[in-house]
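## tool: complex_structure
## caller: assistant
## args:
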Amino acid sequence: MNIFVCVSQVPDTATRIKPAADGKSIDKTDVNFILNPYDEIAVEQALRFKEAQGGEVTVVSVGDDTVLNTIRKALAMGADKAIHIKTSDEIDGISAARAVADVIKNSNPDLILTGKESVDTNSGQFATFLGALLDFNVVNVAVKLDLTGTQLRAEREIEGGKEVVETSLPAVVSCQKGLNEPRLPTLKGIMASKTKKPEEIAFNGGSAYTTISELVKPPAKPAGKIVGADLSAVPALVDLLHNEAKVI
Amino acid sequence: MSSLLIVAEHRNGKLKKSSFEAISKGASVAKDLGLSAHVLLIGGTEVAGLTAEAANYGVTSVLTVTDPKLSAYANRAFATAITEAAKAKSASVILLSATSMGRELGAFVSVKLDASFASDCTDLQSAGGTLKVTRPVYTGKALSTVELKQAVKVITLRPNAFPVLSVPATASVESVSVSFTEKDFGSKVVDMITASGKLDVAEAEIVVSGGRSLGSAENFKILEDLAEVLGGAVGASRAAVDSGYRSHEDQVGQTGKVISPKLYIACGISGAIQHLAGMSSSKVIVAINKDKEAPIFQIADYGIVADLFEIVPALTAELKKRSH
Ligand SMILES: Cc1cc2nc3c(=O)[nH]c(=O)nc-3n(C[C@H](O)[C@H](O)[C@H](O)COP(=O)(O)OP(=O)(O)OC[C@H]3O[C@@H](n4cnc5c(N)ncnc54)[C@H](O)[C@@H]3O)c2cc1C
Ligand SMILES: Nc1ncnc2c1ncn2[C@@H]1O[C@H](COP(=O)(O)O)[C@@H](O)[C@H]1O
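## result:
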């Protein structure tokens, strides 16, 4: 099986986000970038399919040289190869997806895995963009995947339950927590990853269709009220929710 | 003349609340931009019974794409249906709800129409004839204003972020005929596993959440009882999910669901940054925690510093008493 995994880098989830001086991006000083948590799940799933039925796992990431860190983590987990689509231009989801589609369309991919969403942009659009660009089947937010030959049976999370989806390869699947428990890189994996040099390819994704014109912190909330510290607070709280907040 | 198209979702023969929100917003945006507004319904025979209700929000017409094969969800076929309806009405703005269905359909359609796409928006301004879109990024830790540069713009709206405004009106009903290919049904839903008709935390107007301190799955019963009197859903922190007390579907936060209910009650949740990321845009936040230094109190509107095992059942009883 020829499997591709798209990975992106995101600020560590414990990061306190500060807008940068340009008012459009975040201040990257002291921000530690990590492999997007959902992409770890995608890498793990690719490795499991490969272990079960053979094949090759290639990770792909679009961005400047800083993405090499996340590529290295995926290689250390056990991916075979990596492609770095290099650009320092402003990209958005669609231009990144176009660049990836352009690079892998001639490589006969069977399966392309992505994370459910990047925890920075929270867009959750990339898998669908890729599927639409490549004219492949798409499954989003998968929590279970069963592959028999080229037939794929997936469970995907929806509001209040799950949908069981039947589709066939080639397909693009975005991976949700619950699908698997990602492995930690082993020392052996880390050593082996050092010999795997990412292939660098120039960006060919065209122009971005969206730009961020402003980025601000959400308005601060006024300090709340401590209603009390014992049972007498209960009727008082109900009064406040009813009369002041008017939410019940 | 170009137009605005709103894609409405339905389940079990009923339009979703989030669709009424999208239709209400769409009708008012269309007015500001001088566009006609059309609601699109896609499905099998059940669609006929939904058109009247969809019309009740001040739109010009209700469009239907029906086919027996569309009674089960197939993402590519639904995307084709929307694309064809958008072309038929020269739509320049397409609105969907940021649900599991709307998010993927929006992305599909934006590629097919070479459009700009913004997902999960919490504000959409149309005064002055241009669209201004706000979406939370970094899981709610920042808000971004997005410019959509293409002539056609596809936008999904976060559930619960927009009010429902009914405008009794009449609208024409028009069916759009679409021919589908085999590829359109290359991925299709064959079954649903519904968690006993449980209300989803992302859709509920009131969410009662519990953390590690609940101590067991059984103890969540007290939160279930409170959620029941409030007509809400039960959520959980990651610590509670990782401890096996709740399933991941209920997790609120950076690696769970990001929600904006009108009331969020956090019970025994410390308020770690990854948890706040998922619920800080709730309209009103109540925190019940033994530790007065817990960070959750910094964003709570109302706090009670006490043992949740005492407070929660008392709160349920108080609400029951008053509902009589
Ligand atoms: C990559 C990553 C992603 C994450 N994603 C998420 C996420 O999506 N959602 C999420 O929630 N977390 C997430 N976390 C975890 C997060 O950092 C916290 O560990 C977690 O939210 C803590 O859960 P908690 O508040 O239930 O537990 P704790 O932090 O242990 O807090 C328990 C609280 O309960 C109070 N308490 C104890 N007993 C009682 C009682 N009887 N009555 C009243 N109060 C009581 C205590 O005072 C304390 O404040 C993530 C972490 C990482 C690293
Ligand atoms: N620049 C990128 N390079 C490679 N993959 C990406 C990139 N951006 C997003 N992805 C993939 O798309 C998924 C969803 O991202 P998003 O649509 O931005 O929320 C991520 O989890 C990654 O798997």
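## assistant note: The radius of gyration of chain A is 21 Å. Helices of chain A lie at 37-53, 68-77, 93-104, 126-134, 187-193, 233-244. Handing back to user.
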